[in-house]
Amino acid sequence: MSARKGCSFGSGSSSNSSRRLLQNRVKCNCGNDAVIRTVRNGQNAGSKFYGCPLWPDTKCEMFKLIDGSNVAEELQSQLLEMEVVQKFKDDKIKKLQSNKGSLEQELSELKSEMNQMKSDIMKANSDVANLKLGLFVVLLLFIIMYYLKL
Asked: Where are the domains of the chain?
């Protein structure tokens, strides 16, 4: 986990504090983890509050003001959560890139096998044509020999 400029995580194990912060997430009315937003207008302008992450595209009207002492902890919690999600995404990207390499190798092998099969089919078609020509010649010789005996 990387510390960002201007952020301090306090004392204690970062894994324990991140687990504790992630477990204390506030849920909105529709069951999602609430996000921290800032009041833009009115007497509470500049204050932080919990709100639905789907707002304004939802009917969930979750609104809970955050007192000033919890803002830093909540923002730290969101930062830690974003870092965990980013690490998961980075790991998934590495795994997909690894799979891409093996799939490219497999595709190359399949193309090679397909080209070999095409070559085999062309050879088989040539063999069939030669066999037909040979049968025609044998039949012609048989007919000639039959008429010569008569």
From this structure: 14-149
